[in-house]
């Protein structure tokens, strides 16, 4: 039977939209059995740090759109206007051709990333990382014999345990989240894992201060085992996000960067979460004295007002793709249809202007410090907090059954805590089915405009929720 003519759903009532959602939308990361009886929550408006659902409930959003994206907060008229004006003038032309906001934003971006010069546009963090992997693979082929069908040259890519780089098969191949990967193999060959640098759960059972930063030196060990002639790049999150907000020890990244340089391995930093002010500097890596070869960005670049991602490289890397003009395939033969949309860079320009004009990096530093101190104080009260950590407005609370043994708290209990906070009007996050038996970190990443009062409200909700937990 033919379906009836669709209605103008934007003018429909919320209950109508909720019904259509229940009937037709397949939500991300969701077991839909639960929605057969009770429709999923629908967020329908937002202003500043707060959002409203279709039932009229208001929430303080402590995770910037659930996945640390809305860095400058909701309801930014000037971003919406910039998108409107730009798309009315010129909405799209394929990215082989230039466009005004794309050019202007590339200049603004590289101005705050000394040493990096070129911006390649696409649409998501996964895609930005995938582009970087393609650059590495193409260089490996370019620099070695082309007559072999076997992998050759510096084609391998190292990634870390507990880091996440995206949802496609290849970016999952480069991710250290075993539960996320469990159902989607086989994976792309040519990726090798290196240990992480989580001091609270040191992979080498050492203690910071007496460890000689073995986790960083392990990178060299793996390069030697795999063969330095085969390693093209190392990808890592400067501060790990979905893996549980892991801040590396101060020495870690400079040692890793030096090892990469010594073995001619490109250093690729995934700033999809840390980028655009989240940690109090423009980029997470800028807390450390290092110079990456590739940086990937998404999420906060345009705060979710329009999709956009960037793969940013040095001019030296870019130049390698001009060395063989005689070769019909001697350039980066890649495209992303929507990488040519102008809405993304138009929004990104205003997003960056807002961060600058409202001095949000300073706000992140001071409010973030306040948040970390308050969380440390909360540890005194609740034995189930094993560790609190973070930088800027990027904070994690690791819950354990026992502080001495560090036995991780069950994921179901974390789910109870997040839903208790929701009942209290605060949206917080948690590590989500990424590591079997180890999804025990509560996550906070409020918008960069958060105030101390917002932090008080968030932490008070967590305090109340933790007080109800019995183990
Ligand atoms: C560090 C990191 N890299 C990449 C991605 C993938 O980004 P996207 O979901 O936009 O593809 C994510 C997503 O959460 C992420 O946290």
Descriptive labels:
Aspartate Aminotransferase, domain 1; Aspartate Aminotransferase, domain 2; 2 domains; four-stranded mixed beta sheet; 14 helices; binds pyridoxal-5'-phosphate
Q: Strand content of the residues, in percent? A: 5-15%
Distance between the termini: 55 Å
Number of strands: 15
The overall number of domains is 2
Question: What's the name of the CATH homologous superfamily of the largest domain?
Answer: Type I PLP-dependent aspartate aminotransferase-like (Major domain)
Helix vs. strand class: alpha/beta
- So how many helices? 14
- Quote the CATH topology of the largest domain: Aspartate Aminotransferase, domain 2
Word description of this protein:
The protein has 471 residues and is α/β, with parallel strands linked by helices. The protein folds into two domains: 42-72 and 360-467, Alpha-Beta Complex (Aspartate Aminotransferase, domain 1), CATH 3.90.1150; 79-357, Aspartate Aminotransferase, domain 2, CATH 3.40.640.10. Helix content is 35%, strand content 14%. The protein has helices at 14-24, 64-68, 77-89, 100-111, 125-142, 169-173, 178-181, 214-226, 252-262, 315-319, 343-357, 360-381, 411-423, 452-467; strands at residues 43-47, 50-53, 58-61, 118-122, 156-160, 191-194, 231-236, 266-270, 294-297, 309-313, 385-390, 395-399, 426-427, 429-430, 441-444. The strands form three sheets. Strands 4-10-9-8-7-5-6 form a seven-stranded mixed sheet, sandwiched between helices. It starts with 13 loop residues before the first helix and ends with a helix. The site of pyridoxal-5'-phosphate (PLP) has 16 residues, from helix 5.
């Amino acid at each position: 039977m033919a379906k009836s003519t669709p209605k103008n759903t934007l003018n429909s009532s919320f209950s109508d939209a909720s019904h259509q959602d229940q009937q037709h939308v397949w939500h991300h990361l969701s077991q839909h059995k639960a929605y057969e009886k009770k429709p999923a929550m629908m967020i329908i408006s937002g202003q500043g740090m707060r959002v409203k659902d279709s039932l009229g409930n208001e929430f303080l959003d402590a995770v910037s759109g659930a996945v640390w994206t809305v860095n400058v907060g909701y309801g930014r008229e000037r971003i919406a206007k910039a998108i409107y004006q730009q798309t009315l003038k010129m909405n799209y032309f394929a990215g082989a051709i230039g466009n005004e906001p794309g050019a202007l934003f590339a200049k603004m971006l590289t101005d705050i990333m000394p040493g990096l010069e070129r911006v390649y546009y696409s649409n998501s963090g996964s895609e930005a990382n995938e582009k970087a992997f393609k650059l590495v693979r193409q260089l490996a082929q370019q620099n070695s014999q082309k007559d072999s069908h076997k992998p050759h040259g510096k084609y391998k890519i190292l990634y870390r345990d507990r880091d996440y780089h995206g949802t496609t098969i290849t970016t999952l191949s480069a991710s250290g989240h075993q539960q996320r990967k469990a159902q989607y193999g086989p994976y792309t060959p040519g990726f090798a894992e290196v240990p992480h640098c989580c001091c609270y759960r040191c992979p080498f059972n050492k203690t910071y201060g007496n460890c000689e930063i073995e986790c960083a030196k392990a990178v060299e060990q793996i390069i030697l085992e795999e063969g330095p002639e085969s390693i093209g790049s190392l990808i890592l999150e400067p501060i790990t996000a979905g893996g549980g907000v892991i801040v590396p020890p101060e020495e870690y990244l400079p040692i890793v960067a030096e090892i990469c340089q010594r073995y001619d391995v490109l250093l690729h930093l995934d700033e999809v979460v840390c980028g655009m002010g989240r940690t109090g500097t423009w980029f997470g890596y800028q807390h450390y004295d290092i110079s990456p070869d590739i940086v990937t960005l998404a999420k906060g670049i345009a705060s979710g007002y329009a999709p956009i991602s960037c793969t940013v490289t040095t001019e030296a890397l870019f130049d390698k793709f001009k060395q063989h003009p005689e070769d019909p395939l001697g350039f980066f033969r890649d495209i992303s249809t929507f990488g040519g949309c102008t809405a993304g860079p138009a929004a990104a320009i205003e997003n960056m202007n807002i961060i600058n004009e409202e001095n949000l990096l300073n706000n992140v530093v001071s409010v973030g410090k306040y948040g970390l101190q308050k969380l440390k104080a909360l540890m005194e009260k609740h034995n189930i907090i094993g560790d609190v950590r973070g930088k800027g407005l990027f904070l994690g609370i690791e819950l354990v059954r026992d502080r001495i043994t560090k036995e991780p708290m069950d994921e179901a209990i974390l789910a109870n805590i997040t839903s208790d906070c929701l009942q209290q009007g605060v949206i917080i996050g948690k590590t989500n089915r990424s590591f079997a038996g180890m999804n025990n970190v509560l996550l906070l990443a409020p918008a960069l405009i958060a105030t101390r009062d917002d932090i008080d409200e968030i932490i008070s909700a967590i305090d109340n929720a933790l007080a109800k937990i019995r183990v």
